[in-house]
Amino acid sequence: MLCSRLRPFVRSMSTTALPASSIPLLTTVPAVRQWREAARKENKSVGFVPTMGALHDGHMSLVRRSLAENDLTILSIFVNPAQFAPHEDLATAFLCIRRSLATQEIRTASAVFLPSVKDMYPSGFNQDPAAQKGTFIEVKGYGEQMEGKSRPTFFRGVATAVIKLFNAIEPTNAYFGQKDIQQCFIVKRLCGDLLLSHPDPEHIHIVPTARDPFDNLALSSRNAYLSAEGRKLAPTLYRALKVAEQAWNDGFQKVACVERATDLVREVAGTSDEAQIRLDYIEFNDSDSLEPLESTQCREPGSQPVLLSGAMWVGSTRLIDNIVLEMIL
Ligand SMILES: Nc1ncnc2c1ncn2[C@@H]1O[C@H](COP(=O)(O)OP(=O)(O)OP(=O)(O)O)[C@@H](O)[C@H]1O
Ligand SMILES: CC(C)(CO)[C@@H](O)C(=O)[O-]
Ligand code: BAL
Q1: For burial by CB atoms within 10 Å, which of 102, 117, 158, 288 has the most?
Q2: How far is the CA of 252 from the centre of ligand 1 (A)?
Q3: Domain layout of the chain by residue ranges
Q4: pLDDT category, 273, cuts 50, 70, 90?
Q5: Whose CA is closest to atom 15 on ligand 1?
Q6: Has the ipTM of the complex gone over 0.95?
């Protein structure tokens, strides 16, 4: 069963309701397979950019990279209900799709795939994980770490939707944003574990986070929900991560790096009239296991990359950001 808030928006996504477009809007799995088959016959490589709509410049940096590296680029827009907890705002995410389809930028892609919830969940979908039936994919030991601690069913939803999209499109390459760094590593592992060839883990590309050029705030669909005051405070998360990065590079232990970053957020929160910001976490994780580092761990040059990531509440909006230490993307 579909969550009641979602139902009207799914109905409104019927083909006839879509705006006119000069690029193919593929709304069913058979249609996207046909498009893919034609590309295969012409020996054309296909780059894939999965999104949930509400397009911004961060999405466009993925599209640009795909355009540069492939003959054809397909972008999907699917607000995947399985990655939203029942209390999260799925309806607002849906409202953004129509606006995205009207933007000029996605017209540079070769095709847009807009599946319905019914196409993506042929066995039906229930928003309550305990009542769900059918096939769901878990990436055990990785999906529970980091963001998974706050969003327990999130990566199960992401993995399930991504594998379905990959099976429908069979892309040569797929592009994901560094802003959602855990998602990038989980998708790579998913492709490796399930022995996927289209794409295999080496063809999952991580594109650096696109930021506001003035204050480095990571672009995100969620930024649209910030108040004017909240928008001013939002870059504090990245500033805090930079403080932690500096301390790490100076040789401090993890616990001290986190403390310095936390102090900065506390200080900024103290100067805000409305005390709008609250740090959820700042953590250092191993990029292979995704396990948190030991408190006493400090920088070891030449070791494998470390994920320095954080989440911060700005009013009722939860923002995430990260820095990958010692890695060339
Ligand atoms: N600032 C960014 N730079 C690069 N890629 C990004 C950026 N923001 C999002 N992406 C990537 O775009 C893809 C689609 O993301 P999505 O449609 O969920 O947008 P979003 O801005 O991440 O939304 P939300 O704010 O709900 O997290 C993902 O791979 C995501 O990592
Ligand atoms: C990858 C994704 C499209 C899967 O639903 C989503 O998690 C997102 O937009 O990052
Ligand atoms: N880009 C991540 C999607 C989400 O947070 O639901």
Answers
A1: 158
A2: 31
A3: 7-207, 221-325
A4: low
A5: 51
A6: yes
